[in-house]
Each structure stands twice: as structure tokens, then as C-alpha cells.
Specification:
With 479 residues, the protein is of the alpha+beta class. It folds into four domains: 74 residues, no CATH class; 155 residues, Jelly Rolls, CATH 2.60.120.1440; 95 residues; 84 residues, Lipocalin. 16% of the residues lie in helices and 42% in strands. It is built from five helices and 30 strands. The strands form four sheets. Strands 1, 2, 3, 4, 5, 6, 7, 8, 9, 10, 11, 12 and 13 form a 13-stranded mixed β-sheet that branches. A nine-stranded antiparallel β-sheet has the order 25-24-23-22-30-29-28-27-26. The radius of gyration is 31 Å and the shape is elongated.
């Protein structure tokens, strides 16, 4: 009987595995060969054992002085080493076949996922607030807006409504419909998202899925890295590999082949949009404009807050408008001065979008300045906010708030009785001595007995306090 010998492919795969040069595809092929033929597994274990023994012998020889006689090495326990190697290979094979297995970096305790943030989310069913925990079987459902979900593994999802996503594990979920962008950090590889016709297995990447609610074609695209797309009844090895810039479209049913399509990357939102936009004013009456499309998700009330940060000249506005595709939808016309604390007045504009006026499109905020003297300048921030901020209650502001300004650490404490305190670098300050705070129309005002000037704040969410007439960055709720 002819003695079995490893073929060229197997020798190449095993050599690559031992020297660490094997690609992901070749690793999968080697595992496939070893699963299919026990002799291939024996061949790998034999060479791996020799490599280990050789490394041990070489290390021992380096440790011995040359004039000394070489002592006999302890007997190498090949059976134990083979068992360990086999176990490692078996684990790798199982992880490859079942990428939903928990990665070593996944935290062992805590909820499977949490709602990290949301913008304009209109909830279907259960209303979730940032920080809310979601266990296995929990469903995040929104009719519009954006929701950011972070799995326990660290995988971050940005879900655009209308959408429904079910959490199925610490690094897995099911997209029933909607748009999803997944960013998988190192250590969380193996994230799996299922959809109607199959599933996507991450291999360390950022990718997107668009699954329509009507059962139409699902699209999968890769921003960077690599994923494996498996249709129904396909194994991981049978799935199609997608790389950066690639996209496919699939249809209902396992018989439908994947079809390559152009990847429309601009159709997906990859980050929670900022509510803050810089402005720079150098005089004149030309309007200033900002694209706020990713913040206008429904009809309702919105706020435009103009905040001065720097410069010798105050910005004086006459009106602010909100436009959809170039047409004015909402407007607030009143004079406003935006400068340092003593020269800021009327800098909060309220804009309404009626139920029949809203649709998806390009939403633009436009601010009209009065003509100013040439030579001056100023710069600051437009904060575009949900009008619901004005519904805040006094108890929402109570407690400590921390922020940093010009390298110093500050803490403000708003007490329920209307008094307030300030610490600078952990040292008490008398700046708020005899000051008191109150809520007027949803805006917190810190009033000073010897002055008619008040510091003003808005509450963006339970953890973000906005300074609207002081050039300080947002404060975070302290502990």
C-alpha cells in the first residue's frame, strides 16, 4: 500500500500556519482540509510538535555555557503537546464555524447592549432613553430618527429609522428592517447580524446593511475591513467575502444569488450628528447657513441658539430661518446680540415645522445679520436643538455638573432650594456667593444680587448641560 503523503497545497498551508503568514482565507482552507481528512490533522500536529521541540532544544542550548557538557533534556511529552495543539485547532475551527461565540474581550457581566445615544428618535412601542439596557430578545424600534446602540463586546451600531433591531447576544443581533451601520473595534471581531435572507459575519470592519420593511432586496456594503455574507442554509465557508468598497444585493429565498452593486456610501449615516456648528463673522449682511438635515427628523419645534466664543465684535442678528430644499418652512424674527456675557441678549430662536411641512430633504438653517462695522470679527457656535428642551423641570437640573475651561476643572452644584455653589480645581470659590438659580421657560438662570446679568443654561439630555451665554464648553453631570 502506498504510504500517504501530504500534497503541495497542504504543505504550503501548514508551513504558512507555523510561520504566521497565512491569510484568513487560507486558515479557513487549512481547517477545512483537517476536518475532512484526519491524516491532514496528524500531519499538522506532527510538524507543530517538531517546531515546538526544536524551539525548546534551541532555547536550552543557548542557556548553557559552551565548555559545560550538555545535560540531557527532560523528555518531551509529545502526547500532552499534541492534545494542547489539537484543542487549540479545534477551538479555532469551532470559532470559525460559529463566529457568534463570545470573543475573549467581551465583558462577562452586564446587559447585552445599551442605548448610547439618539437623535430625533420616534419610538415604536417601548421608549428608551440613553443608557437604557437591552438584554437578549429586547427590540429597538423607531419610526424615524437615529439610535446608537453599543453591544457589550464594544460593537457600535448606528440605526436609522424606520427600523427594528433585536438584540440576540452580547455581540449579535437581528435587523428586521431599516438601515444599520456597524463599527466593530479590535477584540470584538465576529459580530453577527441576521436579516431576512441570511446574515453578515464581521471579520473586523465597518459595514452597512439596508433591509426594507416590504421584504425587498437587502443590500450589504463594506466601508473598511472584511465581512462574510451568508445566505440561508449556507455555512460560513460557503458565504461570500466582501471587502472595503464592495456591496451586494440579495433577494428573498436561498436560491437567489448575490449580485454586486455600486456601494452608495453617502446614503448611510456613520456617526451620531453633532448639534453644534461653528460660525465665523467678519462683518456685512450676507446670511450664514448650516446644513442641519441630519437633525430634522420630524415635524415639531426646534431651537437655534447662537453662542459667542471669541472676538471683539458682537454678532447682531435680525432673524433666523429654517428651510427645506431652499423654501422657508419656519422663521423667528427678532433682534439678537451675541457677544460676551454682558452683550448677549435674545440669542435663542424658536422654529416650528408643521405636521404637513416635514419631509426628508435638505434642511438648512439661515441666520441674517445686521450690517456691522468693517474690521471687527467674532466667532462662536450655533447649537441646533430639539424644542422639547424647553420642557425641562427644575429637578432635571439639580445636582453637580463638571466642565473644563482654559485648562481648569470646574464643578457647579445646583441645589433643590435654589442655591448654588462653585468649585475650581477642587477648591471652593465664592463666585456664586449669594447667587440663586431658577427656571424660566425651560432655561436655567443663575442670578446675582448685585447685577442684572444672568448666566443661562439649557439641558440637552440628562447628562449634558449647555452654557448659552458664556463661552464655556458643555458640562457633564457629575457623581
Amino acid at each position: 500500500m502506498m504510504k500517504w503523503q501530504a500534497d503541495g497545497e497542504l504543505r504550503r498551508l501548514v508551513d504558512g500556519m507555523l510561520d504566521g503568514s497565512l491569510s484568513r482565507t487560507d486558515v479557513a482552507r487549512l481547517e477545512e482540509r483537517m476536518e475532512a481528512d484526519p491524516r491532514a490533522m496528524e500531519y499538522y500536529l506532527s510538524l507543530a510538535g517538531q517546531e515546538s521541540l526544536l524551539a525548546e532544544l534551541c532555547a536550552g542550548e543557548r542557556d548553557l555555557p559552551l565548555p559545560m557538557p550538555v545535560k540531557k533534556r527532560p523528555r518531551f511529552h509529545w502526547a500532552a503537546a499534541a492534545a494542547l495543539i489539537a484543542a487549540a485547532i479545534a477551538t479555532a475551527v469551532v470559532m470559525k464555524r460559529n463566529p457568534r461565540s463570545e470573543a475573549p474581550s467581551v465583558a462577562k457581566t452586564g446587559p447585552e447592549a445599551r442605548l448610547s445615544s439618539e437623535v430625533g428618535a420616534a419610538w415604536n412601542g417601548q421608549h428608551l432613553s440613553p443608557g437604557a439596557a437591552l438584554g437578549t430578545g429586547s427590540v429597538l424600534a423607531i419610526s424615524s430618527g437615529l439610535a446608537e446602540l453599543t453591544h457589550r463586546s464594544g460593537t457600535r451600531l448606528l440605526i436609522e429609522g424606520p427600523a427594528s433591531y433585536e438584540v440576540t447576544g452580547p455581540n449579535a443581533g437581528r435587523l428586521k428592517h431599516g438601515k444599520l451601520v456597524a463599527e466593530v473595534p479590535p477584540g470584538a471581531e465576529g459580530y453577527v447580524v441576521e436579516y431576512a435572507e441570511g446574515r453578515v459575519v464581521d471579520l473586523g470592519t465597518e459595514f452597512a446593511i439596508s433591509a426594507p420593511a416590504d421584504g425587498g432586496h437587502t443590500e450589504v456594503g463594506v466601508f473598511r475591513g472584511e465581512v462574510r455574507v451568508q445566505q440561508e442554509n449556507e455555512t460560513f465557508e460557503q458565504g461570500a467575502a466582501l471587502y472595503a468598497g464592495h456591496a451586494v444585493r440579495t433577494g428573498a429565498g436561498s436560491a437567489t444569488r448575490l449580485r454586486s452593486i455600486p456601494f452608495d456610501q453617502d446614503s448611510f449615516i456613520r456617526q451620531i450628528p453633532s448639534h453644534e456648528y461653528p460660525w465665523f463673522y467678519h462683518g456685512g449682511e450676507a446670511p450664514m447657513e448650516w446644513d442641519v438635515s441630519q437633525l430634522v427628523w420630524s415635524a415639531g419645534n426646534y431651537l437655534a441658539v447662537m453662542k459667542w466664543m471669541n472676538g471683539p465684535q458682537a454678532l447682531v442678528l435680525q432673524k433666523v430661518e429654517l428651510l427645506l430644499d431652499g423654501q422657508v418652512v419656519g422663521s423667528d424674527e427678532h433682534p439678537c446680540s451675541v457677544g460676551h456675557l454682558t452683550s448677549t441678549l435674545g440669542n435663542v430662536y424658536q422654529l416650528k415645522v408643521g405636521p404637513g411641512a416635514w419631509k426628508r430633504g435638505r434642511w438648512t438653517l439661515r441666520a441674517w445679520p445686521f450690517e456691522a462695522a468693517e474690521g471687527g470679527h467674532s466667532e462662536g457656535i450655533l447649537m441646533f436643538e430639539d424644542g422639547a428642551l424647553l420642557n425641562s423641570e427644575p429637578g432635571d437640573f439639580s445636582g453637580p455638573w463638571d466642565y473644563v475651561h482654559d485648562g481648569n476643572r470646574y464643578r457647579r452644584l445646583f441645589n433643590p432650594d435654589g442655591t448654588c455653589s462653585l468649585w475650581i480645581n477642587d477648591t471652593p470659590s465664592d463666585y456664586f456667593k449669594d447667587a440663586a438659580w431658577e427656571l424660566r421657560g425651560g432655561i436655567l438662570q443663575v442670578n446675582f444680587p448685585a447685577s442684572d446679568v444672568a448666566e443661562e443654561h439649557l439641558l440637552r439630555d440628562g447628562n449634558s448641560l449647555l452654557f448659552i451665554n458664556q463661552p464655556y464648553r458643555n458640562a457633564r453631570r457629575g457623581k
